[in-house]
Specification:
9-stranded mixed beta sheet; 4-stranded mixed beta sheet; disordered N terminus; binds adenosine-5'-diphosphate; binds zinc ion
Length: 448
């Protein structure tokens, strides 16, 4: 393949795993490790955190009630509301003097919450990110361009640390200044790009706009996450940058990116089960669901020190599967989350996920530059989708704009069951994302 020629693998031993022994443990062994760590972690949190102890008391759960992994079902859930109530350090389990770092959520769904880390917690997190980089084909010979935002956001810090742990050459670009991203990519021979998928799509667009093709860069892989993205978006990015695009998932509350990561199979993300215990629950009743059915993901950290959360409700909807993976990893896999339960829009009584709109658009050959605007006029919800045309579509469309609009509207009706008003816009009308894309403007919230 063209890419292999550019990326000279001669003399490089490709490692398949960052921590093989852990990443390929037999399932029975994983379960034993999890149980042992869980019992210890529960005792530690219960013994060191008054806020958590109070929650347990309220549920009537004490130290003696938790004797095996299955007893986790007795524990209360933690939610973002708890984190806001306990803000900033009510859930801390170590003295501040033992902490070395604070990071914060992006505040996508409201007030930011903060998480604390000891050096042990940072190491654990960075190792998870190193596992993700290796799973994407990374070695110490790679040049890893980190174009996630640096700062309080965990994206930059996590992948940066993971790249260091692996010994790759790390390029701490942060997000933004897209032309410079491409120039450095060329000058310094970046082979792996880490950023949000929406920013990767923008970098791909810019590359072509600057008159280059994927043959002008050495990039072979990308590790993209921090926001939901569809399979269609993956194809779009893989084509425009000439790479293999891997998904990575995580959240600040649990540590950051790298809680789960994709392998070469690209059929879901392996959850780092030696550190995080995953459950899926019915979001309405809180009942634990069997593997294989879609539910809200709940995480319990197993060996953290400063900010260990037990049964934290992520609000992310996904499916867990333990089917054998060809990569050799044995960790349970989570499907691409289709978004958070709170990303779901209810428009005229119908559930709509932004990812469904992205799927339709890209399947119909449109750009991933779109915005959804919902409002309420009187008692009626209005639903508009702004769709940007590519330069080529814009040039060719001429008198056919009405037909194009009609066809696209029909495709949305088929996918969603309701009719949006579609607006086909000139190139560059929709603002580009350098971090987490803002796809939805729900003006109804302003009226509440
Ligand atoms: P915030 O909750 O304020 O956005 P974070 O920056 O910690 O704070 O983001 C974590 C959230 O980002 C996750 O709960 C999830 O909703 C989303 N997310 C992260 N990675 C992915 C991914 N690969 N696919 C879909 N959603 C993701
Ligand atoms: Zn795998």
């Amino acid at each position: 393949m063209e890419k292999d020629k550019k990326y000279n693998l001669e003399g490089v031993t490709l490692k398949k795993f960052f921590q093989e022994e852990l990443e390929t443990m037999e399932t029975a062994k994983i379960k034993a490790v999890q149980e042992e760590k869980f019992l210890k972690q529960f005792k530690f949190v219960y013994g060191n955190n008054a806020y958590y102890r109070k929650l347990c008391d309220k549920k009537g759960v004490g130290l003696d009630d938790v004797k095996c992994m299955a007893d986790i079902a007795k524990l209360p859930f933690l939610t973002k509301a708890d984190l806001r109530e306990a803000y900033p350090d009510g859930l801390l389990c170590k003295p501040l003097a033992d902490c070395v770092r604070i990071q914060s959520t992006s505040g996508t769904t409201g007030k930011r919450v903060v998480a604390y880390y000891t050096q042990h917690d940072v190491d654990l997190w960075e190792e998870c990110c190193a596992r993700a980089i290796v799973a994407a084909g990374g070695t110490k010979e790679d040049v890893v361009q980190v174009a996630y935002g640096y700062g309080l956001f965990t994206g930059g810090a996590g992948l940066h640390g993971g790249s260091h742990k692996l010994g790759s050459l790390t390029l701490p670009m942060s997000s933004g200044n897209t032309e410079r991203q491409i120039q450095f990519m060329q000058d310094l021979g970046s082979t792996i790009l880490c950023c949000t998928p929406s920013y990767a799509a923008y970098i791909g667009e810019k590359l072509h706009e600057m008159g280059f093709t994927p043959d002008d860069i050495k990039l072979k892989a990308g590790i993209f996450g921090a926001e939901p993205w569809t399979e269609e978006m993956r194809q779009n990015i893989q084509n425009s940058l000439g790479i293999k695009a891997y998904d990575i998932y995580g959240l600040t509350e649990i540590s950051g990116p790298g809680v789960a990561f994709e392998c070469e199979e690209q059929t879901g993300m392996h959850i780092n089960e030696d550190h995080f215990y995953a459950e899926t629950i019915d979001p309405e009743t809180g009942e634990v669901l069997p593997e294989g059915s879609e539910g809200e993901l709940v995480f319990t950290s197993l060996d953290k020190e400063a900010f260990p959360l037990l049964r934290y409700r992520t609000r992310d909807l996904t499916v867990l599967t333990r089917e054998k993976c060809s990569c050799g990893r044995t960790f349970v896999k989570m499907k691409k989350p289709k978004g958070r339960s709170d990303d779901m829009l209810i428009i005229r009584g119908v559930n709509v996920f932004p990812s469904q709109i992205e799927t339709v658009l890209l399947k119909q050959g449109y750009t991933p530059n779109y915005q959804i605007i919902v409002d309420r006029i009187g008692n009626e919800d209005t639903f508009d989708i702004n769709v940007e045309l590519s330069e080529e579509q814009f040039r060719k469309i001429g008198d056919d704009v009405d037909i194009a609009n009609k066809n696209l509207t029909a495709a949305f009706v088929q996918m969603l069951g309701i009719r949006p008003r579609v607006h086909l816009l000139a190139p560059k009308s929709v603002v580009r994302s350098e971090g987490k894309a803002v796809r939805v403007i729900d003006k109804r919230k302003l009226h509440d």
